What does this fold into?
Amino acid sequence: MKNKTAFAYTPTDFETEKASNSYLMSLLALIAGLPLPIINLIATLIFFLLHKRSTYFIKWHCTQALLSQLSVFVINTIGFWWTISIVFGTPTLSNAYFAYIICMFLFNLIELAGTIYTAIETRKGNHIEWWFYGPLTHLICKP
It folds into this structure.
C-alpha cells in the first residue's frame, strides 16, 4: 500500500512534525465529526491551505493527505446519503447496499491504519508514498 522512499533532502525536525500533523489532522477531524463525511475534508483542506507555502516536504505530505481525504469523502458521502435515503425514504435494503457498506468500512479501516502508520513514519523523517496518491501528489506538487 505504501512505499518508503528517500526524499531529495533530509527534512528538519520542524518539517517532519508539520508533515506528520497533516495526517493527524484528518484523524482528529474524524473524532470530532464522525457522522458527517465533509468534516475530515474541510479540516485537511484548511491545514493544506495554511501550509501550502511551506517547504516542499510539508507541502508534499499535506497534498497527499488531502488527496486521500478527498477519496474518503467521496466514498463516505455516497454511503451516507444512501443510508439516509433508506432511513427516511423507502426502506429497500439490497445486497448492493450491504456490499457497498462493507467495502466502505474496509476502505475506511485500511485508510485509517495507513494514515496512522504514515503519520508515525513521517514524524521519524521517513518519506512515505501511498501507492495511488504518491504519484498523483508528484504530479500536483512541484519542488
Residues 2-140 form one domain. Strands lie at 2-5, 127-130. The radius of gyration is 17 Å. The mean pLDDT is 86.
